[in-house]
Design brief:
Elements: H1 2-25, E1 31-35, E2 38-45, H2 57-82, H3 88-114, E3 120-122, E4 127-129, E5 150-155, E6 159-162, E7 174-177, H4 184-198, H5 200-203
Antiparallel strand pairs: 1-2, 2-5, 3-4, 6-7
């Protein structure tokens, strides 16, 4: 149990520190090239992981509630199986997934209250609207509880080229991989999920030989 909570707390601290730094030192959509293949690019995400949006304001509330429910299920699952001495193939990925879920839900729940500026939903235009300048964590608030946006900053344009004009549908267009901007929390969830899949034969058996049933 101690290992799970330690990993969760460590990843959560790194995630939140990185978000606070970007939010208070970068203007929205500002990008800094660290390497040709890696940029720090500040965007705010009102929807799901990796910049995918889901609906408007209602979708925002729904996703936040779903995230909170998921966190509750993960904590229940961790508490249930850690006492039965589940192995590291199970414990470490689950800790990463929990940390990632917590990291993004903190943004959704509290960032609208903590910061003075942020991306907000315009009912008349039915669109999410950005802002200008640097945000300050002065607790003056830019949105209500559960309406904060997730801070993303990791951008990896690994491959970039123009499609030949003879290629059907995409010919002549510019292609860039990998386009989504994400954060430490998204990375933790993704890595945790991949590890669980790769080591699924070992992960779902406790040290005593008992099978873990989802």
């Amino acid at each position: 149990m101690k290992k799970v909570w330690s990993i969760t707390l460590l990843v959560l601290i790194i995630d939140q520190l990185s978000k606070f730094y970007i939010k208070t030192n970068f203007e929205l959509y500002e990008s800094v090239k660290v390497f040709d293949w890696f940029h720090l690019a500040f965007v705010e995400n009102p929807g799901m992981a990796y910049g995918f949006e889901f609906g408007g304001q209602f979708g925002k509330y729904l996703l936040t509630i779903l995230r909170v429910v998921l966190i509750g299920l993960i904590i229940w699952f961790v508490t249930k199986w850690m006492f039965r001495k589940a192995n590291n193939y199970f414990a470490i990925p689950l800790a990463l997934i929990l940390a990632g879920a917590l990291g993004n839900v903190i943004d959704c729940l509290f960032y609208g209250i903590i910061f003075d500026q942020g991306t907000t939903y315009n009912e008349e235009m039915k669109a999410w609207m950005g802002y200008h300048g640097l945000a300050t964590a002065d607790f003056s608030g830019y949105a209500s509880f559960m309406q904060g946006c997730v801070v993303d900053m990791l951008y990896f344009p690994l491959v970039e080229f123009d499609w030949p004009t003879w290629v059907p549908f995409v010919g002549g267009t510019h292609y860039k991989f990998f386009q989504p901007v994400f954060n430490i929390a998204d990375s933790a969830i993704t890595v945790g999920g991949i590890l669980l899949f790769l080591f699924r034969k070992k992960a779902f058996i406790t040290k005593t030989g008992e099978h873990i049933h989802l």
